[in-house]
Amino acid sequence: MNRHHSNCQIDRCQVCLADHDALRHHFEEQLGDLNIDYLGHYRQFLEKQGIACQSEDGWGTSEYFDDANIASYIANWTEEDE
Length: 82
Hints:
Low-confidence stretches: none
Distance between the termini: 22 Å
């Protein structure tokens, strides 16, 4: 996945919001539209692994958008983890 503004400091940036929304949509496509906060759950998943995934501006870091981290989350997903 791609984050277009890697060091964005704008808390209401529409480009960054669109990047996060695209990641949410990707999770829904892969895991089902289960009315789950996939982005929040994904952040918790990364934090449990000691990965810094949220920047000071509140947007996801490059680790948050890392393809390997995303694939690991999808591969390890269970509804019970919610």
